[in-house]
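Progress note, project year one: complex with FE2/S2 (inorganic) cluster.
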Amino acid sequence: MAPLSTMSRALARSAMKQATTVRTISSTPAVLGSSSTFSSPFKGESKSTKVPDFSKYIAGKSSGNALFSYFMVGTLGAISAAGAKSTIQEFLVNMSASADVLAMAKVEVDLAAIPEGKNVIVKWRGKPVFIRHRTAAEIEEANNVNVSSLRDPQADGDRVKNPEWLVMLGVCTHLGCVPIGEAGEYGGWFCPCHGSHYDISGRIRKGPAPLNLEIPTYDFGEGDKLVIG
Ligand code: FES
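Model obtained:
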């Protein structure tokens, strides 16, 4: 019986040891709970995720901001307007005619230098202009034509400001050749390109040209000056 009691004691001791271990493990949460500083980020507010206080950076009055906005908008508007004005001004200056072009826009002719019964050709805007100092006989001849019989009916009086002076573009109305003066069947101008005849008033009388020679804009200036253009 002695070994049995020894075994029983050993078993009892072992059981007691196991009970102590179980007690120790089961008491661990209580020990941790009383001394731990851990705090879950999901419970309550954490120091690391606190939003800083920016209240001192927020403008106290909204009128200050509005004033600044108005100032900026006004300044940018003024700068843009000045830039636009400068650009448009430069564009218009570039578009305007240069001095030499303006000089060509009008041509002044001294009529005193043209004897009666003579032709003079001047260049105006790149085209020839015929100026004829007509004689009394030529004026009479021009007026004696039956206007209704003309291809391009026009009285001589409608083509001149002063009957003595016939001023017209020296460009054939057919295809643009320059007619020859004091030639042709009507004592006026003749276009050799295709045979058009113009009379002493520059009206088409024969040939393929459909219209009379064109009269440019002109005026008589002071003295014996003729201004074309
Ligand atoms: S261009 Fe003068 S007649 Fe043809």
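Helices lie at 2-35, 62-95, 99-105, 136-143.
The chain has four helices and ten strands.
No further modelling is planned for this target in the current period.
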